[in-house]
Design brief:
about 220 residues, 2 domains, globular, 3-isopropylmalate dehydratase activity, IPMI_Swivel, alpha/beta, Aconitase, domain 4
Length: about 220
């Protein structure tokens, strides 16, 4: 099942007003002892979300939630879009961070910029990393002061709508394919087989000696 069947999604937007959120804050390392891709939602933003520390033996439903943390606000229960500041997902290349976001229920993160590896991991794991200008992100944060913002995300058109506001963003063709079709990284590459064949033909025409090397 693709992350965005039909290419669109509407949901509440949770505003996380912190810059430079690294992958250890998103998913603390003490929980990363498994390669399972699910079950990490309860420890997303663990050290900010709870007042008491947790470990692999914790019953997270019994831990004390931090009343001031955005994901613990009752009116944002079920939020599926995360609004963040610049350089979100910086730090280590911890794929578990994206797994935790997805497992919590987030379909997309909207920010002015992302850590490069984190952004690549997002598309590979069904989470859209949406880049908007800093001023546009400021506007979305301002909209959420009075009441929660519900936004419509159109992956194919590259448009995010929130109330009367309309913002445009860009995704690579591969990102759009991974998010809207039931394919993995290999499938996304094979979808470009005609372009790959055209490139190979042109390369051999310019460097014919490579043909003998390839035939060995």
């Amino acid at each position: 099942m693709p992350a965005f069947p039909g290419g669109r999604h509407s949901g509440l937007m949770a505003p996380l007003d912190r810059p430079n959120v690294d992958t250890d804050a998103i998913f603390p390392k003490q929980y990363g002892r498994s390669t399972a891709r699910s079950g990490y939602g309860p420890v997303l933003f663990d050290s900010w979300r709870y007042l008491d520390p947790g470990d692999l033996t914790s019953d997270h439903a019994q831990r004390r939630p931090h009343p001031g943390f955005v994901l613990n606000r009752p009116e944002l229960a079920g939020a599926s879009l995360l609004l963040a500041r610049e350089n979100f997902g910086c730090g280590s290349s911890r794929e578990h961070a994206v797994w935790a976001l997805r497992d919590y229920g987030f379909k997309a993160v909207v920010a002015p910029s992302f850590g490069d590896i984190f952004r690549q991991n997002c598309a590979l794991n069904g989470v859209a990393a949406i880049v908007l200008a800093a001023g546009e992100v400021d506007a979305l944060f301002a909209m959420g002061v009075a009441q929660p913002v519900r936004a419509l995300l159109d992956i194919e058109a590259g448009v995010l709508e929130a109330g009367p506001a309309r913002f445009h963003f860009s995704l690579t063709p591969r990102e759009r394919l991974l998010l809207t079709r039931d394919v993995d990284w290999i499938g996304a590459t094979l979808a470009q087989r005609e372009r790959i064949a055209e490139f190979e033909a042109g390369r051999l025409a310019c460097q014919p000696w490579l043909k003998k090397t390839l035939e060995k």
